[in-house]
Amino acid sequence: MKDMERLPRLRTRHVTLAHGGGGRAMRDLVEEVFLEAFGKPVKGPLEDQARLEMPRGRTAFTTDSFVVSPLFFPGGDIGTLAVNGTVNDLAVGGARPLYLSAAFIIEEGTGIDLLRKVAASMAREARKAGVTIVTGDTKVVGRGQADGLFITTAGIGVIPAGRNLAAENVQPGDVVLVNGRLGDHGATILNARGDLALETPIESDCRPLNRLMEAVLAAAPSCRAARDATRGGIAAALNEIAEAAGVQIEIDEASLPLRHEIRGFCEILGLDPLYLANEGVLVTFVAPEEAEAALAAMKALPEGRDAAIIGRVREGRGVVLDTVLGGQRIVDMLVGDQLPRIC
Asked: Which domains does the chain have, with CATH numbers?
């Protein structure tokens, strides 16, 4: 009998509508795909909620949905995005991420092996970030209604006493830093869709940034604010900060860490690399006396080896770019997005 219990109950190779029906088929899918990858986070029977022990401090809570196309791309997949995107949203607020939830909308006919692969990616990235996936949900929709797989994750973390990262804290004189090359994720997705034929392989920068953020805060305790430059790229992140703080942010084009390949294809396609999405880049604002310490702290970690000081905060409004030609141009926020379905 014990040997029979060890046999897998999930015999089908593709998701059917029965896997979303709340019965035994759904339970088999959850247990043999997601619990197999994530593990059982708490002792006792599975419930409709996770009961968590929270350290003292202010609680940070965030949620995000992921609809990337294609689902798999060089450097990551929809699962790595789902974990790292939520971890990073917590980290840039000064929180230490602890727990995640994961909800899956699965299209009928999706391969079970594909789900296992995505779940394994999520489990791996959660371990890297030091977080636990503690609860979730699955829904199955008919063919043609979900483009394979959509994932929604929510995250909870704790903000230690004394931390107060907020856009409104940014003030004239502050220094602007980024931790890595810009636009790698957006370029990777565009290339994976077959819209480019780059000779140099480019991978998404998808990665957790909570360790990097902790290092910055240790080196620069008066860090004013941070943003992860995802959809809308660094341009959107800077404009959000400038508007909230009522300041002007001046950045130097020559200081931007950009691959030559990305500069080149943006020129050919008429794209602006400042608006390309990133999944492993954060923008930080620190006091001028702490800028070098913050930069050194970033460069000491693999996820910050391409860190750079890219600008300063001035009196005024908006975001301006000092070009390599010696002029200036306004960097406004786009109404839409250069590239849809990138995360």
From this structure: 2-159 (3.30.1330.10), 167-330 (3.90.650.10)
